[in-house]
Write the structure tokens for this entry.
Amino acid sequence: MPPLVLAVRPALTDAELNELFAAAWPGHRTARFGPVLARSTAWITARRAGRLVGYVNVAGDGGAHAFILDTTVHPDERRRGLGVRLVRAAAEEARTAGAHWLHVDYEPHLRPFYTRCGFHPTTAGLLRLQPDP
């Protein structure tokens, strides 16, 4: 099997991100990612034989706080540690950018995954601004 190659802030196309998200997230709707990446602190990708198989985005406030978004691993690559590698690389990029805190929101079934990544549960608030599509 060809090796995985992780990269920080590589060029990405909407087509390859939409292909990955469609494989990983049932119900994914085609999206434009350029505006998101333009505002991102960093993003990390994983490729195997040139094919995008993993992605995570880091958003930040330009100061002490950064946020993990869209951690995505292709179903063919799951349960091999790739998600943890992506999140840890994203944490290092956030640290390098000057963040003091890295936040992530997740559904309850993902708690064990994010615990393996080094996160600790906290109490937080959430306000819905738009209905689900």
Summary: Residues 4-116 form a domain with the Aminopeptidase fold (CATH 3.40.630.30). The chain has a mean pLDDT of 95. The helical segments are 14-24, 34-38, 82-96, 111-116.
